[in-house]
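Dear Dr. K.,

Following up on our conversation at the group meeting, I've run the structure prediction for Cardiolipin synthase N-terminal domain-containing protein from Microbispora corallina. I'm pasting the input sequence below exactly as I used it, so you can double-check it against your construct before we proceed with anything downstream. Let me know if the numbering doesn't match what you have in your notebook.
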Amino acid sequence: MAYRVDMPSVIIGLALLAFWLYCLFDVITTPGTEVRAVPKALWILIVVLLLPFGALIWLLLGRPQHAREAVHGPAGMAAGVRRRPQHDVPRGPDDDPEFLRQLDRRLRDDD
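The predicted structure tokens came back this morning:
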């Protein structure tokens, strides 16, 4: 008696496995001081023992707040968009007025 596996059930199973592994690695790599609700070791047990339900509980209740803001953004902003302080923004050479003045000076001196 052969058991037949349908393609949709394989895809759903792989998606659940990927979701579970993502959450498990997320729990493991999150610093213990940033975990919410219960200690980190207990979160690992919840995710491992409750499989996809534990992973979902981790995302909703245990994940650090700043990780949630990185995905959803602060209130009033588009999803996935975070504002960084102005001093944090990297500037390219073409945005630096001093670099452009030096470049212009060098180009004039070469002529």
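Two things stood out to me. The CA atoms of residues 73 and 83 lie 9 Å apart. The chain has a mean pLDDT of 80.

Best regards,
J.T.
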